[in-house]
Structures are given as structure tokens and as C-alpha cells.
Amino acid sequence: RSNCRATSYHRYWPSSVMVLSYFKEAPPPPPPPTLLDRLTALQPKYQQDGCGASAYPFLAATIMFTLVMQCWERYLDLRQHRRIKERGDRVPPELERLVDAMPTTAGESSPAALLAKLKEKAPASRAYALDKSRFKFVSAAYSLAKALAFVLLGAMPYLWDAAEALGTKYFGEGHEIKVSLIFYGLWELADTVLNLPTALYSTFGVEARHGFNKTTPALFATDLLKTLALTAALGGPCLALFIKIVMLAGPRNLAVYVGAFFVLVSTFFVTIYPVVVQPLFNK
Questions:
Q1: 20 to 30 Å CA-CA from 42: which of 29, 151, 236, 266?
Q2: Contact criterion met (CB below 8 Å) for 152 and 136
Q3: Are 49 and 87 in contact, with CB atoms under 8 Å apart?
Q4: What are the CA-CA distances from residue 208 to residues 115, 216, 237, 251 (Å)?
Q5: CB of 179 within 8 A of CB of 236?
Q6: Which helix (H) or strand (E) holds 100?
């Protein structure tokens, strides 16, 4: 009986191991994330299915590089703005010497009269240059905000998935070239719509304020539609041909075929631009 009681007693009493494990210290908390960990964890809001986290902070590096380049370019623009503000209403000495050295031809203005006209128009030219310079700071900030929003929101993968959904709906599976053309069209439409505010203010604000605008709203809309039509008519086939070359060339001959393609396309556009494209906009 005593043995049974002892066995029953030890059955319900915790062992020494259990008691020691109860009073054992809790594991130390994980170390706080480093700056590299935080930068690597930065991901766009929209991600495609199957997109895993990268081991390197590519997105953060892209954003930082963009910001550094923008700061450098705005610093150069600020220096130019200050120079225009300080000396923009004066004719440069080099230009004065060039005008003085011009030969006088019968029926034309003398160098002195031409120089006086330049000095008369210098303040107006300075005001126009300062206005364009101020607007450049605003448009650059808007373009930077737009680019960062596109990257952080994941606009490109979102538009690609939308293009793939449209291509699958209307053409079925496996039409890579058609999906790429749909993506190209969606991207151009989105970029055109987002660039409209700066384009409108540049044309009907800055240019019109100084008497250089001869574009009516109807002509502006017509030129915009012509630009979109030319982009679709010329850019679409070129993009489709480029993708086809990449698919057929293979890795060994890719550089040769792509290089030849760009040479032919550049020659083609240089040839047809002054003959076909330019007359559509300059009548």
C-alpha cells in the first residue's frame, strides 16, 4: 500500500526538470532591424503573383539614385536661374563685340542700331527666361513625384497585368507581342494624361504671358491626337518587330540583330520625319 501511495504521489507532483524549465529565462528578443534590412523590405504597393522579396535593396537604391540626380540637376538649374536674374537684362560683351564687328550692308540696320534693339529687348527676354526657369522647377518637382508614385505604387506591373488580362480576354493565351502592345498603349495613355497639366500651363500660361503662343485649344487637342496616332502607327510596329527579333535571334546573335534593327529604325525615322511627320504639325 505504501508503495502504491508513493507512486500515486510522484505521478501528480512535477518533476525537478519541469520546475527548472518553468523558471528558465525567456529567450532574448531578436535584434532590431538594421538600415539595410529596412531598405530591403521596401516593396511597391502592387506586386505580381509569385513576386518574392529581393535579397538586395534594388528599389531603395533606385529611389535614392533618382533623388540624388534630381538634386544635382536642380542645383544646376538654380545656378542658371540666379545668373539670369543677375545678368539677364544685359547684353553679353561677347555679343556686343560680335555685333560691332559685323559689316554694314546697304538696306540693313547698322551695328549700332542692332545693338540698341538688343539692349531694348533684353529686359523682356530676361523676364521670359526667368518665367520659364521658375516653371521648370515646378514641372521637375511634378515629374519627380509622378515617377516616385509610379515606382512605389507598382504602376508598371499593374499595367502589365491589366494588359495581360485584356490580351487573354480578346486573343487567348500566349500572345506576348499583342500583350506588349497593349501594355505600351496603356502606358502612353497614362503618361499623356498625367503630363497634360504641365503641357497646358506651359503653352497657355508661360508662352501666352509673353506673347509667344499661337496655339488655340483646338489646335492643341488636334496635335495631341496626332501625336498619339503617330505613336501607335509608328511605335507599335517597331515594338512588335523588336520583340520578334529578340524571340528569334537567340542569345548568341542578339546583339548583332538588335544593333542592326536600331540602325535601320533610326535611319528610317530620320528620313521620314522632315517629309512626313513635321508637315503634320507645322502648317
A1: 29
A2: no
A3: no
A4: 27, 11, 37, 53
A5: no
A6: helix 93-100
Q: Which residues of 192-206 are buried (b: 16+ CB within 10 A; e: fewer)?
A: eeeeeebeeebbeeb
Buried b (16+ CB within 10 A) or exposed e, 61-79: eebeeeeeebeeebeeeee
Return averaged pLDDT per consecutive 10 residues of the chain, 283 residues in all. 48 50 64 80 85 82 94 96 86 80 71 82 89 95 95 93 92 89 95 95 92 90 92 91 90 90 92 81 66
The residues, ordered by sequence, that sit 6+ positions from 88 with a Cβ below 8 Å of its Cβ are: 122, 125, 126, 129, 130
Measured on CA atoms in the order 175, 176, 177, 181, is the torsion positive or negative? positive
> Are the C-beta atoms of 109 and 117 separated by less than 8 Å?
yes
Tell me which residue of 275, 277, 200, 195 sits closest to 235, measured CA to CA.
Answer: 277
